[in-house]
Design brief:
The chain is of the alpha/beta class. It has a single domain, classed as Alkaline Phosphatase, subunit A (3-Layer(aba) Sandwich). Helix content is about 30%, strand content about 15%. The strands form 6 sheets. It has an 8-stranded mixed sheet, with helices on both faces. Strands 18-19-20-21 form a 4-stranded antiparallel sheet, covered by helices on one side. Strands 14-3-17 form a 3-stranded mixed sheet. Strand 5 and strand 6 form a beta hairpin. The protein is globular.
């Protein structure tokens, strides 16, 4: 995308209606949860998931049961969602660089900035753009400071201080301080996410007369999985159910999949080997489930504040996760793949007067669709550059015709196409995978070489991005 296009977009912003204060517009509550896969009660990803608040939210509106992240790691996923552009368009494939380092992207509006430019009071807390904290200090992240009227803990830092065990890694793994879990002796309110939930709750209870866009970024279940003991107690170790796996699952896939586990932070296959050898699989699953239940409790506190505010009937709620997470499936821990465990995410919308309570849609949808959807719901004309599609037709009718699959990307030139029935993957070396979810929901049997599925592959392949922008890490700004 050229600077001329970016300039045209800015001109468009200046001429759009809606800059005046308009208290009649709906508020937006935008809840992001990090690393949350389908281990949510309403999605049935794990039989022991305890997420009563997220399930109650789904009962208020619509859950998309086949929603997928745009990318399999944090920065490219969140950048794509916030800008409305695919990684193959922006060139942001990894956790660096920031889109803000490149003028042709930095001038594009993010979702909260677009709402602010169109008359909304915008408030945020926690991880909305890419950020992390797992070592001596926090990585402040890539913040669009122009998007917000106020931010907690600050415009310079997205994540509050964390409560951690005194000696880390507490699980004694020899690989990474980031792949850790332990209970911590503290009150929920002292946890980073507890601070975020409290600050957001206070803002929801304020009355300003302006329409509000309020974004809450919940960090758990991103590792390390440090949460108070009560959340571990909710998932007794002796009862933990492990994911169902196939021992020779990777025998029918290409070697390029092993490239996705490389890295100095947390190499996925090495972690799995340690988990199995140390007999820590059940402990890891327990810690993840505990962190999910903790995150759910934070969602509950935020929703309780919204209900007490008296504005719930005029508030659009959207809850999403930036990508999924493997817990031993396909010999992986982490994300960084183009399989279902990495791309499938919770996506819930509550739109007063539109979404039927307790409704579900199995259409394949993408987080790329959030920007145009929210703009339409708020009565704001969407920017022309967006590559997603508004979900409003499905919010009105979950069974409405929808002929688009969801596209996910991991690193340069690797893409997955997910339809309602199939997942097709093509890697940058030309190797392929195809899975039929009607018969193989675990994606154990690669059908890419089966001639009976040639037409299916051809149909899905036509949705692959037609171009792949070079990785911005290796491109100098001209």
């Amino acid at each position: 995308m050229t600077r001329k296009i970016a300039g045209a977009l800015l001109l468009l912003l200046a001429t759009l209606p809606g800059h005046a204060q308009d208290a009649g517009r709906p508020d937006v509550l935008f809840i992001a949860i990090d690393d949350l896969n389908d281990w949510v009660g309403v999605l049935g990803g794990h039989p022991q998931a305890k997420t009563p608040n997220i399930d109650a939210l789904a009962a208020r509106g619509m859950v998309f049961t086949n929603a997928h992240a745009v990318a399999a790691i944090c920065n490219p996923s969140r950048t794509a969602l916030m800008l409305g552009l695919r990684p193959s368009t922006t060139g942001v494939y990894e956790n660096d660089p920031s889109w803000l380092d490149h003028d042709h992207l930095a001038d594009l509006p993010t979702i909260p900035r677009y709402f602010r430019d169109n008359g909304y009071r915008t408030l945020g807390a926690g991880k909305i753009f890419h950020a992390h904290t797992y070592s001596a200090g926090a990585f402040a992240g890539y913040q669009d400071a122009r998007a917000w009227e106020a931010y907690y803990p600050s415009f310079e830092r997205q994540l509050p201080d964390e409560v951690t065990p005194p000696d880390r890694p507490a699980n004694d793994n020899p690989i990474s301080i980031g792949f850790d879990w332990s209970h911590v002796v503290t009150d929920d309110r002292a946890m980073g996410d507890g601070q975020v939930a409290a600050w957001i709750s206070e803002r929801l209870l304020e009355s300003t007369g302006l329409p509000q866009f309020v974004a809450a970024g919940i960090y758990r279940p991103h590792p390390p999985w440090y949460v108070p003991q009560a959340y571990f107690d909710a998932h007794p170790l002796a009862d933990i159910v492990l994911p169902t796996v196939l021992e020779n699952d990777l025998d029918d896939v290409s070697e390029i999949t092993r490239e996705f586990e490389q890295g100095t932070f947390m190499p996925a296959l090495e972690i799995h080997e340690w988990v199995v050898a140390a007999d820590m699989w059940a402990e890891g699953v327990q810690a993840y489930l505990a962190s999910v239940t903790f995150a759910d409790a934070m969602v509950g506190r935020i929703l309780d504040a919204l209900d007490r505010s008296g504005r719930a009937d005029n508030t659009i709620i959207v809850l999403w996760s930036d990508h999924g997470w493997h817990l031993g499936e396909k010999q992986r821990w982490r994300k960084h793949t183009l399989w279902e465990e990495s791309t499938r995410v919770p996506l819930i919308f509550v739109v007063p007067g539109m979404t039927a309570p307790g409704s579900r849609s199995g259409r394949a949808v993408s987080l790329l669709d959030l920007f145009p959807t929210l703009a339409e719901l708020a009565g704001i004309e969407a920017p022309e550059h967006l590559e997603g599609t508004s979900l409003v037709p499905l919010l009105r009718d979950p069974d409405a015709e929808w002929n688009r699959p969801a596209i996910s990307t991991h690193q340069f030139g690797n893409h997955a196409v997910r339809s309602e029935r199939f997942r097709y993957i093509r890697y940058n070396d030309g190797s392929e995978e195809l899975y039929d979810h009607d018969a193989d929901s675990n994606e154990w049997h690669n059908l890419a070489e089966d001639p009976d599925y040639a037409d299916v592959k051809a149909e899905l392949a036509r949705w692959l991005p037609t171009g792949n922008t070079p990785d911005l890490r290796f491109v100098d700004e001209q």
